[in-house]
Write a structure and sequence with these properties.
This protein is an all-alpha fold. The chain is about 65% helix and about 0% strand. The two termini are about 35 Å apart.
Length: about 200
């Protein structure tokens, strides 16, 4: 299996920007490429195939980690933990389930350790997407737009661009983003428990 020590890692000395530039050199995978690499790992324990899957998703791991900005956690450490979670997701990923690695990996950050395994079936993943859509109603239009552009789109829009769009400071955009993310997570947890998708803590 791909070893964490072989992956790029953010350091206080190197800076986050340098790390983000470094991981952008790894290409994103087409669905067919990802499937074939996953099959090579599952069937033959091909470590090179696993490494390609991991590196192609480092940007996703970083994006998830960025969701914890504003919590006082060292960003480099959070990204490192997200990368470890990504390694574990690749190790357990089954390409025959009919969904992408990114979908599987995103739910590692859920509070239940068994959530990823519990929601492997594609129909339950559809239920998760519906849950996200329903939970978005807790946000106002500005919060929805900022959250979509900052965290739910393929290319992240900068705070600078959004501050121009809304004619407020970058810090105000960051505050709205963090608050919207917290509200969305709380609503999704509430809905999931109400529908029996998560056990009570």
């Amino acid at each position: 299996m791909s070893n964490y020590k072989n992956l790029p890692a953010p350091t206080p000395e190197g800076g986050l920007n340098r790390y983000m530039q470094e991981i952008r050199k790894f290409p994103m995978l087409e669905p067919e490429q990802e499937y074939m690499l996953a099959k090579r790992w599952v069937d033959h324990e091909d470590t090179d195939a696993a490494h390609q899957m991991v590196t192609s998703h480092l940007r996703l791991a970083a994006k998830i980690a960025m969701g914890y900005r504003g919590y006082g956690l060292p960003q480099a450490e959070v990204i490192s933990e997200a990368n470890v979670g990504l390694l574990q997701a690749v190790k357990r990923f089954d390409p025959e389930k009919g969904f992408r690695l990114a979908t599987y990996a995103i739910w590692l950050e859920d509070e239940s350790a068994n959530t990823a395994a519990d929601y492997e079936a594609s129909d339950e993943l559809d239920a998760r997407r519906e849950l996200l859509t329903e939970a978005m109603d807790v946000l106002n239009e500005r919060e929805k737009d900022i959250l979509m552009q900052r965290r739910l789109s393929e290319e992240t829009v900068t705070l600078e661009d959004l501050s121009g769009q809304y004619d407020v400071s970058r810090e105000r955009i960051r505050q709205i983003e963090v608050r919207a993310f917290e509200k969305l997570q709380a609503k999704m947890q509430e809905l999931a428990r109400r529908k029996g998708m998560l056990a009570d803590a």
